[in-house]
Amino acid sequence: MGGHGHGAPYTVPHYSQFKIDGIRELEEVQSELAKRGLKDPWIRNEAWRYHPGFGTKWLKARKLFFRGFPLGLGLTIATVAFNKLTGGDDHGHNGEHH
User: For the whole model, what pTM was predicted?
Assistant: First the structure.
């Protein structure tokens, strides 16, 4: 069911492949916890978020805010051009300007 004979839709990576060594943000969290005598045994579960394949914080923000920008800009230009060509840009004001 749900695979059409292609196998599992995803593979769960082995937990041992995730290390916080070299990830500055997670190392800082670990050191702050250690100052208070605490330890987070599950911190390695956050390591995937810092993998280069997921991009930097700024790249993620750019994707979030500008994902549809090229399409939106193209549609805006097409709409304005269509209105100019068909003469439908007066919005029913009949030449009256306020």
Answer: 0.46
